[in-house]
Design goal:
87 residues; mainly alpha; Monooxygenase; elongated
Length: 87
Amino acid sequence: MELITLIGLAAACCTTAAFVPQVAHILKSGNVEGISLGMYAIFTLGVALWLTYGLLIDDTQMMLANAVTLLLAGTVLSLVILKRLDR
């Protein structure tokens, strides 16, 4: 595997894994007070567009990284909406 591919995979792993603590924190505490709904909505849309782009150019690494990130960011977005509607 080429160095450039390894760097891209490492970057994808880091940026995707960055959402795991946020999801875990919300699921554990139920606290969504400090989370910007607007930011997560825009970010989730952006990730969905990156995933679409990856599908269109048939880039497996881009598709995989953005599919997992979309799942995690979408989970945060959904939990924020559901918790705030519950108030």
